[in-house]
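User: Okay, second chain of the day. Same drill as before: sequence in, structure tokens out.
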Amino acid sequence: MKTLICIRQLPYAGNTLSFGGLIAGLQNSPITLMTVVGDETRRANADSELEKASQLLNGSRVETKIRLGTPKAEILNEAREGDYATIVVGSQDAAGMLEALLGTVTDKVADKANATVLVVRGERTGALKKVLVAIGGQKMNRKVVEVGTRLARLAQATVTILFVTNPVPTMYTGLDEIEETLPELLKTDTPIARYLRWSARYLADQGVQADIEVAQGVASDEIMRVARQGDYDMLVIGAAGTTGPVRRLFVDQVTPHVVERAPCPVLVVR
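Assistant: Same drill. Structure tokens below.
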């Protein structure tokens, strides 16, 4: 299980190195530390940056690599060729309307990579104590829960499973708050209830302390609200389906919106 950590330049890559190294260390994963340069004249400087960066990973098994080309293409090429389990990239805000429409390098790697992608946002660098696992929609992927649970168990962290539904199921129409219906929801034989009951059992079997929350509203907005209010160290979510500029404008693509706006690192599970 190898980890690819992609950086640009110090000190801006400090958070990416610290949190990416933390997650790799929990999994006892060897690290490939990579940067991408546009031409050969920048290779010497890139070598120096990688050497400094590798020293910040505190004795982890580190291989350094420089690729020539554009960041998006070369990160994805390395991900395919290197058979990595996790790819770590820093967050990147859209610089203009075109990037807001088409997506940044971070967005594209999270969307297209054939591995799980950790997007490091915010200042979370020291520990992993609270994990938010966001599930929902038509694709209730058990792997999202399994990956979040595994990392939480290794870090001795707590987990909150968040399911966002919109609209409120017909059987609950008229109730003021969907949170009040959670015990009733868990007693039903709906796919949502079965998935939540399985999640609770799985976490308990793994010895991970966990809570379940159900919220109503626009999924990306509710995930952001809970992430901010709960002060989580990492958010785990499933990869998006097919995306593109039209869908980015007119469809609530939950995962891309979360990757762009989260207050903490986001683990996008492929």
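Residues 130 and 230 are 9 Å apart (CA to CA).

User: Thanks, on to the next one.
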